[in-house]
Specification:
GO terms for molecular function: DNA-binding transcription factor activity; transcription cis-regulatory region binding. This protein is mainly α. It is 64% helix and 0% strand. The chain has 2 domains: 49 residues, Homeodomain-like (Arc Repressor Mutant, subunit A), CATH 1.10.10.60; 150 residues, Tetracycline Repressor, domain 2 (Orthogonal Bundle). The radius of gyration is 18 Å and the shape is elongated.
């Protein structure tokens, strides 16, 4: 059983060596954005990727394009992890766990805030990646709820807020020094999602639309 088909970004496929360089640039950029923020010099990203500055600009004409590709690639990988887990076992809650832990590994909390007023947050690629995440996670949560695995009073927005908060280092802590604790705390959160619920949650279920309007 697989998740319903979802929007896919249209990307022109370059030749193999160019594709490898592009992937190395995106991987290096993701690491450095997490470590230093979105304004790290592009020549430092090129150096970590093992390519020249011209190669970076050939693939990404400006910083906005590179940031956008990094964030889209992270959202795509988290979506694919959830889809793969659901297809492998049919266990919706296990697929939700896979999504949450993958999002923690990808440091999605450090990357998603980069899409702010300084960038085109309504770019079609970003919109498609966001819709895919919402659709897949929403479907998985719906199946888990129908199977009696997931408490009924949580929404996709609740999950996304918790993942962002729990995978973000606390004030005064080095960004990369808390990795050993992230999955422990994410699993505590996931255990709190299981049905039957042990308590009544204050407030209303949080949707992605609520987050967009906040």
């Amino acid at each position: 059983m697989t998740a319903t088909a979802s929007p896919v970004r249209k990307v022109t496929r370059p030749r193999a060596d160019a594709q490898r360089n592009r992937e190395r640039i995106v991987s290096a950029a993701r690491e450095m954005f997490v470590e230093h923020g979105p304004h790290v010099p592009l020549d430092e990203i090129a150096r970590r990727a093992g390519v020249g500055n011209a190669t970076v600009y050939r693939h990404f004409p400006d910083r906005d394009a590179l940031v956008r590709e990094v964030v889209c690639s992270v959202m795509d990988r988290t979506s694919e992890a959830a889809e793969t887990a659901l297809a492998a076992s049919g266990d919706a809650f296990a697929a939700l766990e896979r999504f949450v832990h993958t999002a923690g590994d990808e440091r999605i909390s450090a990357l998603c805030p980069m899409i702010s007023s300084a960038f085109d947050e309504n770019h079609p690629d970003l919109e498609a990646a966001r819709r895919r995440v919402e659709q897949i996670v929403g479907e998985i949560m719906g199946r888990a709820r129908a199977a009696g695995q997931l408490r009924p009073d949580v929404g996709v927005g609740d999950v996304m807020v918790a993942v962002a908060q729990l995978s973000r280092p606390p004030a005064g802590a080095a960004c990369l020094s808390v990795d050993g604790f992230v999955h422990r705390h994410l699993q505590l959160f996931l255990d709190g999602l299981r049905a039957p619920a042990r308590s009544v949650l204050p407030g209303a279920t949080v949707t992605m639309e609520d987050l967009r309007q906040s």
